[in-house]
TrEMBL record:
Domain annotation DYW: ranges: 308-400
PPR repeats (start-end): 5-39, 93-127
InterPro entries cross-referenced by the UniProt entry: DYW_dom (IPR032867), E2_motif (IPR046849), E_motif (IPR046848), PPR_At4g14850-like_plant (IPR046960), PPR_rpt (IPR002885), TPR-like_helical_dom_sf (IPR011990)
Organism: Linum tenue
Keywords, ordered alphabetically: Repeat
Protein name per the record: DYW domain-containing protein
Coiled coil: none
Single annotated GO MF: zinc ion binding
Length: 400
């Protein structure tokens, strides 16, 4: 051929890999690099698969490092191929086990995550600090308080690893999410290291989740004093006051935010369609297809009502009437992104959304019902974990 591009190399390498000629596939990949041709995701899937079958795991790890260095997007197929490669390793390093434990937990496979930790110990791999962060994170994702306590105690008692501030923060979050707010606060008080703002922040979030406004106000005031420039703490404290109807206190907190130049991070949802990233803010009408999106939102609202959906107006912490609250709720960025996904992504391809903040209760409920009403899989990655919505349920089992 007078000219050989990424596509022609990809077809050739993929063909050899599919015919089980893995050594030839790797040799061709080396030739491709010598010609200065940049590989794409398709080529790398074939090459990593060849590495797995040949146990050429050093080269596979090098390709993974190459992907990170070039900041290439890891799509579902490429990501799965990498996981297959690491699982195939006869001698998995502790970092490989840690990645598996954490990745499974973040996607809702908590039972499998903890089973992987047990398998790791059976393989005589010594866990480290990061391992226990992953394990405690798995317990946190499902509210496994007793199991979390057991692993936390075993860190120093069995493995000689002294818990760091991050491990204590995980335990505070685990206890707080489970509603054990007093125990969480006592743990903070008895920590051998001074608590950081993240640890106090985990307790504040738990107070908001479980409606303990007395403790929440006390912790929130402490955090606002400790870190007056942090928007999240101001917003949480303001929300606690709003949930009580204490609008004077809400205005006070907003005044403090203006005084310190604190700007609330707006909720933003992103979705990729045909290689283009589309971003949506709450109430966004700036998209070129906004009219079609509005029609889809109306259609979603009708189908949701047929599914028994009732808007959770407690999520709208504004001094407005109920009808306006419902309208505000239905223009959250996640719902707009889902509407756009329904318009532009054909089934059975999942609708994948990235949210910069924690998904709210109402959007979580709506996403479950939309997945059933439209028979579509929806995946939302919020700031804490992945939520896989399918046929009216979520992988988090409504615990997040």
């Amino acid at each position: 051929m007078p000219q050989r591009d990424t596509v022609s190399w990809s077809v050739l390498i993929s063909g050899y890999a599919q015919r089980d000629r893995f050594a030839d596939a790797l040799a061709l990949f080396q030739d491709m690099q010598l010609e200065g041709i940049q590989p794409d995701e398709t080529v790398l899937v074939s090459v990593i698969s060849a590495c797995t079958h040949l146990s050429a795991l050093d080269q596979g790890a090098w390709i993974h490092a190459y992907i990170r260095k070039k900041q290439m997007k890891v799509n579902v197929i490429l990501g799965t191929t990498l996981i297959d490669m690491y699982i195939a390793m006869e001698e998995k390093g502790v970092s490989t086990w840690n990645a598996l434990i954490l990745g499974l937990a973040m996607n809702g496979f908590v039972k499998e995550s903890l089973a992987t930790f047990s398998e790791m110990k059976e393989c005589n791999i010594v866990p480290n600090e990061i391992t226990f962060l992953a394990v405690l994170g798995a317990c946190r994702h499902m509210g496994l308080v007793e199991e979390g306590r057991r692993h936390f105690d075993a860190m120093s008692r069995k493995h000689g690893i002294e818990p760091t501030i991050k491990h204590y923060g995980c335990m505070v979050d685990l206890l707080g999410r489970a509603g054990k707010l007093t125990e969480a606060e006592e743990l903070i008080a008895n920590m051998p290291v001074p608590p950081d703002v993240s640890t106090w922040g985990a307790l504040l979030g738990a107070c908001k989740k479980h409606g303990d406004n007395v403790m929440g106000e006390r912790v929130g005031r402490k955090l606002v004093d400790l870190q007056p420039e942090h928007d999240g703490f101001h917003v949480l404290l303001s929300n606690i006051y709003a949930s009580k109807g204490s609008w004077d206190n809400v205005h006070e907190i907003r005044g403090m935010m203006r005084q310190h130049g604190v700007i609330k991070t707006p909720g933003c949802s992103m979705i990729e369609v045909k290689g283009t990233i589309h971003e949506f803010l709450a109430g966004d009408k700036t998209h070129p297809q906004s009219e079609d999106i509005e029609k889809m939102l109306d259609d979603m609202a009708k189908k949701l009502k047929m599914e028994g959906y009732a808007p959770d107006t407690r999520e709208v912490l504004l001094d407005i009437d109920e009808e306006d609250k419902e309208t505000t709720l239905f223009r959250h960025s996640e719902k707009i992104a889902i509407a756009f996904g329904l318009l532009t992504i054909d089934a059975p391809t999942p609708i994948r959304i990235m949210k910069n903040l924690r998904i709210c209760n109402d959007c979580h409920m709506a996403a479950k019902l939309i997945s059933r009403a439209y028979d579509r899989e929806i995946v939302v990655r919020d700031r804490h974990r992945f939520h896989h919505f399918k046929q009216g349920s979520c992988s988090c089992l409504d615990y997040w």
